[in-house]
Structures are given as C-alpha cells and as structure tokens.
Specification:
Elements: H1 3-17, H2 23-28, E1 36-37, E2 55-56, H3 58-67, H4 73-84, H5 90-94, H6 108-117, E3 121-122, E4 136-141, E5 145-155, E6 161-166, E7 171-174, E8 181-186
Parallel strand pairs: 1-2
Antiparallel strand pairs: 3-8, 4-5, 4-8, 5-6, 6-7
Amino acid sequence: MNKTALFPLLLTLTSCLFADNRLPALARQQIGVTIEYDPSYVSLKYPGGDVPQDRGVCTDVVIRAMRHLNFDLQKEVHEDMKKNFAAYPSRKNWGLKRPDKNIDHRRVPNLQTFFKRKGWSLPISQNPADYQPGDIVTCLLGDTLPHIMIVSDRKNEDGVPLIIHNIGAGTQEEDELFTHTLTGHYRPKL
C-alpha cells in the first residue's frame, strides 16, 4: 500500500480509537449560558429543536455540543427509534407506544441505547486513563436517576478528568467522574 492510500486509513482508525476532543470545548461554551435545570416537556421543532438556551437538563449539554459538530441527536435518535422502537426503553420506562421527537433524545436511557446501537460503547472502569476528552459517561444519581456527562480535557490535581454536565444548577465543569455509580462509557464517532 502506498503512503497516499495509507493516510486516509490511519485517519479513519484514529477517529475510531479517540474521542472527539472538540466536545469538551463545545460543552464548556454552555457554562454561564445554560443556568437552570428544567426537565419540562416542551414541543420542539424538528429537526434541530431545542429548549431555550438558558435552561435544560443533562442530556441537553450533550445534544447542544454534538449539534455544533453537525450531529443532531434529536433527528438521529428519532429516526432510529422509528425503525427500531422495541429496542428502546420508552415503552417500558414511560409507557409510550411510538417515538416522540420532542423528548426521546432528552432521556438518558434512550441515549444509552442509541450509543450502544451505534457501536460507541466502551468498558466501564475506575481507571482515569481510560476516559478521554469527549467521551460520554452515564451514571445513576442516588442509585436511581440516570445522568449523562461529557469528559473534559481538563483534569484535577490527581489526573482524574473533570466532567461537563447539568446536574441541577446549569451547565458546570466539575470533578465528579467517579462520584456516582457509572452505568455507561461511550466514545462518539462523529
């Protein structure tokens, strides 16, 4: 294989191995803008719908960061759910009979299912080195409430990556990667 043909192959392999390190900077732009935690159901335009920028939930941090990379989780999740509704927890968890473009992408269990279906799952570990900037991590708050976070490109003094999320006080960057029970580790291939 010549060098010209090898470069695109290496680029493709590299993008599969490493997280999209642009996500932390894009999520960080929401700090001071998204200042409220608001889980209200809202009718959204489709595709590209969003709640007002000053509010949202943990999933909105991920949704907004990915949109800046031209990946619309609202559209992607809705389209996959239309074709594979039984693969998602919407019927069991929320009693839905069909996909709902206004809320499905804003629910952590649906995003976990979507990420697994995309082949983005990685093992969960307690080793900080396993988490790269731009990885997405899910956990349980109080062992019952699903939560989602983006791994930052910044670390604490012990070398543990910070995370960017909205846990109740708007978008924040905090030292909470291992604070709660981890339930998922994903590396988006955008």
